[in-house]
Design a protein that fits this description.
Blueprint lengths: L15 E7 L2 E7 L13 H18 L2 E12 L8 E11 L3 E9 L5 E14 L3
Antiparallel strand pairs: 1-2, 2-4, 3-6, 4-5, 5-6
Length: 129
């Protein structure tokens, strides 16, 4: 999907797959690796935030626009451990012309909510097709 949209890959992530669910939702899947752990052996908060922020941006791209994050908020609810399979799902809850709001949920392989985030995105332009 990223090649078609002429976007660079998210290189901070080790291994992931992106799937457009529809024009309002995007899902990224990945497995927590050793390189994404904090000193306590759990997925680093910055890693989880990067996943969520990336999905927020890709959700807007799926709608046909480019955007940057204006504001974000994340709640860390449960630890993600090495080997956990994560699903990161973004859904647009406000679809304005200049700003959009994306709600992101990160769940593990058991469907347990790891983190919940909200992103206000500023639209910088439309994607030329």
């Amino acid at each position: 999907m990223l090649d078609k949209l002429k976007l660079n890959s998210i290189t901070v992530l080790d291994d992931y797959s992106v799937e457009m669910l529809d024009n309002q939702r995007v899902m990224l899947t990945t497995t927590v690796s050793e390189s994404s752990l904090n000193p306590y052996g759990m997925a680093h908060g910055g890693y989880l935030f990067t996943l969520a922020d990336s999905v927020a941006g890709l959700t807007i791209v799926a709608q046909g626009s480019y955007a940057v994050t204006l504001q974000s908020n994340i709640h860390y609810l449960k630890a993600a451990k090495p080997g956990d399979d994560l699903s990161v799902i973004g859904a647009c809850s406000h679809d304005g012309n200049r700003t959009k709001v994306v709600e992101v949920k990160i769940e593990n392989q058991d469907g347990k909510l790891i983190a919940s985030a909200s992103f206000t995105m500023f639209v910088t332009g439309k994607i030329e097709k």
